[in-house]
Write a structure and sequence with these properties.
Elements lengths: L1 E6 L7 H11 L3 E5 L10 H6 L2 E6 L7 E6 L4 E4 L13 E6 L2 E7 L9 H22 L4 E6 L23 H12 L3 E2 H5 L15 H4 L6 E5 L1 H4 L2 E6 L15 E5 L20
Parallel strand pairs: 1-2, 7-8
Antiparallel strand pairs: 1-12, 2-4, 3-4, 5-6, 6-7, 8-10, 9-10, 11-12
Helix pairs in contact: 3-4
Keywords: Hydrolase, Magnesium, Manganese, Metal-binding
Protein name: Exodeoxyribonuclease III
Cofactor: Mg(2+); Mn(2+)
Length: about 280
């Protein structure tokens, strides 16, 4: 079972990129973020023609999340992150796919910090930790997948000294991510690539892509009920170099069938070394 996350940075504007990648990579489950499309404008027909069922929560501007499943219809279990019924931003959707509960999230950016946007980010993170703890207590086989808008360590950011005061790298946010993982979640990419400098995002400005001046913002966290099935993890880095690409590249993991849960994980050869 291959699970991927991809911040598409506009699902309609970059639909050709998304469909090309789906055909090439053949993921079983895909979490999309930053749809930038209202609910009725999601390209459900094109996605279905590519062989994927979908559930989504659309929104204009910068938000919107979706879960795709190859050859199946995701069973939606939640359309928003619990904890704040007044939160109108489309940043979380949850669905069951082939025996795994998938939580697709787009955590707030939080800049400028300090300020109201940073406060919202911290509050959203607290709600996420509370929900994640409940899922662990219930021993749910679950993956929390998406754009977390956080670089957990200095290994996850090009020239970390330049990001000290940014909301993506402030100590409070890195601590929140660490506390989330320490509940019992496995950071899948880092688990299989503990010392590699791996990025999933390269800004459009300052020639960041060509300089490999990237960030690791997109994460796949696994609950203990499914973590033992992890066999591969990687980033389809080349997608960032395609014409009209998103500023993110898809990140993915592969899970063995339950019967093979005790296989020793191995690192993916598709993840390139740092340039």
């Amino acid at each position: 079972m291959k699970i991927a996350t991809f911040n598409v940075n506009g699902v309609n504007g970059r639909l050709a990129v998304l469909l090309r990648w789906l055909e090439q990579a053949q993921p079983d489950v895909v979490c999309l973020q930053e749809l930038k499309a209202p609910q009725g404008k999601f390209p459900v027909r094109e996605i279905a023609a590519a062989g994927y069922g979908a559930v989504w929560r659309g929104q204009r501007s910068w938000n919107g999340v979706a879960i795709l499943a190859r050859g199946a219809d995701p069973i939606e279990t939640r359309g928003a992150l619990p904890g704040d019924p007044d939160d109108a931003q489309s940043r979380y959707i949850e669905a069951a796919v082939k025996g795994v509960l998938i939580g697709c999230l787009y955590l707030p950016n939080g800049n400028p910090a300090p300020g109201p946007k940073f406060d919202y980010k911290r509050a959203w993170f607290e709600r996420l930790k509370a929900h994640a703890a409940e899922m662990l207590a219930a021993e749910v086989p679950m993956a929390l997948v998406g754009d977390f808008n956080v670089m957990p360590t200095e290994l996850d950011v090009y020239k970390p000294e330049r990001w000290t005061d940014d909301a993506l790298f402030r100590p409070e946010i890195r601590a929140a991510f660490r506390e989330l993982v320490e509940q019992g979640w496995l950071d899948a990419i880092r688990a299989l690539h503990p010392e590699e400098r791996i990025y999933t995002f390269w800004d459009y400005v300052r020639n960041a892509w060509d300089r490999n001046a990237g960030l690791r913002l997109d994460h796949l966290l696994l609950s203990p009920a499914v973590a033992g099935r992890l066999t591969e993890a990687g980033v389809d880095r080349e997608v960032r170099g395609w014409e009209h690409a998103s500023d993110h590249a898809p990140a993915w993991i592969r899970l063995a069938p339950t019967a093979k849960a005790k296989r020793k994980p191995r690192a993916s050869r598709r993840t390139p070394p740092d340039a």
